[in-house]
Amino acid sequence: MIIGVLVELSNKNIDKVFDYSVPSNLEGYIKIGIRVEVPFGNQKLEGFVLEIKKETGASNLKEIIGIVDSEVVLNEELLMLGRKMQEMTLSTLISCYQVMLPKALKAKHGVSISKKYDTFYSLNTNVEIDNINSKQEEIINLCRTEGSILKKRLSDISLSSLNTLIRRGILVEEKREHYRLNYNEGLLEKKQLTSDQRKVVDSVSFAHNVYLLHGVTGSGKTEVYMELIDKALARGKTSIVLVPEISLTPQMVERFQRRFGNNIAAIHSALSDGEKYDEWRRIVRQEAKIVIGARSAIFAPLNNIGMIIIDEEHSDSYKQDDSNPRYSAKDIAIIRGKYYDCPVVMGSATPSLEAFARAKKNVYKLLSLSNRINGRELPKVDIIDMNLGIKQSKGHFSLTLVEAIADKLSKKEQVILLLNRRGYSSVISCKSCGYTFKCPNCDITLTYHKTSNTLRCHYCGYGTKVYDTCPECREKSISDIGVGTEKIEEELHKLFPESKILRMDVDTTSRKGMHEKMITAFKKHEYDILLGTQIVAKGLDFEDVTLVGVINADTSLNIPDFRSSENTFSLLSQVAGRSGRSKKSGQVIIQTFNPEHYAIEYTKRHDYIGFYNKEMSIRRELKYPPYYFICYIKISGKDKDILGGEANKIKRALDRNITNSIILGPSPCTIFKLNNIYRYGIIIKYKSDGNIREVLNKIIEHYKGNQKIKIDIDFNPSHF
Ligand code: ADP
Ligand code: ZN
Fold it and tell me: What is the arithmetic mean of pLDDT over 454-467?
């Protein structure tokens, strides 16, 4: 037997199938889609079996060393999916296959994660039972009535009696695999759908179509998803539900679990590798029919998929943009949807412009829920102009916001405060000369970490102590500017010394289980105010929250990216949607230095369509998506001069070979130097694919093995 193996080389430039022979004692185990261990040069490597054949053109055929998987890890459909992904992203086939498997299954991990077993005992019907004492009799009777019993229950009666019965062969042992996670039986809780919800559910037909569900926050989208999944289950089919990692809260999982019990498998970053491995195997064995998870859950090894749901469709977390393959889970969902002839339903209160434009052209079918459940009003939004300055505010809080918080606290209602800021600490500068501390490896301002009293680079990890003397002007006038959650928390404590404040950010939620604990505690009203970054904006459903305050709406507006208005509108709308979801009506206060900006004005009016029309006119003018596709080429290397030369060469090659497109650059990336590597970007704007992939493939081929220049290609980047 000869097999073609796609070898997993650490140097990802080589992406080739090599032929190996299989010793006859292993032939029985070989299947397409399993992994094997092979010799390569003087290394031992893993690879995927892609072909089984009788002949080879290769000479000096080597034998494989062993088998890695007993079960197929990539079935025929997933193998096809990998090839399509490679064509779309222009990354290597091996990287496409690797990204589909949970980390726990990957080389080095797979072996270290063990299956866990429980031991059960049952009666051996072939052995005569005589001469037993009362404890032994008790054990035997229990086995007689219940069949096989967990060891612990029997040893609790008497360990020595149990051992005697085992030794005499009266009880036989059985090992059953034990999963690390336990789901309770679901209560199969169902809500009576409203007529609007029913209409949406009934419009989804069980054939491949892409639907865009535009539903305001609190309109009952999640109930609609669950009903659709139920319909798929009734047809004997499986489902995938994608949610952004950040909103994959225990609250969300619990809701699905209450409805579907242990029919769900939830995959998220809070699980240990072992737990992820178990969930993956429950899916392979079809013990879980509903998979709910973040981006990579789109690769769940389900068969017979009947429904794919993508919640918060606008979220940039569905695009992998930090490593190859730079794929979008939405594209993958559509490929799988076609394969299984099943619907893909994408939902959002603020759909991406791309998706809504497609829905308007009838490429996607548009479904809407324009009202909140039970006719509840969307919260009233007030905009506070922070340019009015110090007289109108206390620290970072406007007097209006302070009064509103005090009012809610006195009524025993709850408040959510959003600090619109990635990162969580401050920028430090010199008050007299304006000097800021920069990372020596990256073009990045260092951020101040109060707890350790250090300045750190969030990109490369560089850290240094803080001095109070400015290295530039020698004045003792270093002070911190900018706002972090820690600082806001301090101010809040001073303003409301009686209130209980919960801070939720990357810092406080990094420990396993913390996120869950905090949400539960807030739900139980152990805290009055929840203060946090983007993490508090999504998916949370708390009855008592009647005020949402945004400390600074501007941070995301100021990011130099063509999507900054869209991202701001969507973030503000999402966080506003946390207020007044239950019987009490809600209020939202947004503080900003740009009160007239249209992203903020349309948020105030809850006017998605108005925002869409305005933003589309800008995109048309500037030739951005959805009017044009974008491909971003990043060229990086250590030597600035060589890099610049090559970037220009690439630009000229593109100009010569690609027609009907706009090619911009090369220009230095926003962060030109990162970890001592310089980076240039080239942008291609185009209306139809044409020969773009062909030309780019040639360029990639040309730089293969080049140690000085690295090329990364990102189609439809979520940001530059
Ligand atoms: P969305 O996902 O659109 O934000 P949800 O599905 O979370 O909305 O629904 C908002 C709230 O309304 C939730 O508390 C949910 O339990 C409740 N809800 C949704 N549908 C119904 C219904 N048909 N009857 C009663 N309550 C509902
Ligand atoms: Zn750095």
Answer: 78
